Amino acid sequence: MYVLLLMPLFPKMQDKTPSPLNHLDTLLEGTYQELLSLADTEEEAQSSLARASNELSAGTRLLVLLLRSSQASKEELDLVEAALFPDVGDCQEQVRSCVRVCVC
Fold first, then answer.
1. What is the pTM of this model?
2. Three-state secondary structure along the chain?
3. Looking at residues 66-80, what average pLDDT do you find?
């Protein structure tokens, strides 16, 4: 989309006596600001996703640990752990450090 906006400007910029840009510079500035805003929003969404993933992973790990302390057999516990899949996110080290802090 950005390239499509620039295409009509190239001939005007190559002239020795260029005509006015008809406020296209304002449009380009607005588009640039909108792209920056969208990039910030995407970064915030990625951060929220990682945080939610860590919280979900910590919760499922806690549930599996609580079930391990019950009277269930090893086969049942392995089945429950496989069904819950406690390794949800990519940030497992953060979860481990958080759990270490909470336990200590």
1. 0.54
2. CHHHHHCCHHHHHHCCCCCCCCCHHHHHHHHHHHHHHHHHHHHHHHHHHHHHHHHHHHHHHHHHHHHHCCCCCHHHHHHHHHHHCCCCCCCHHHHHHHHHHHHC
3. 82
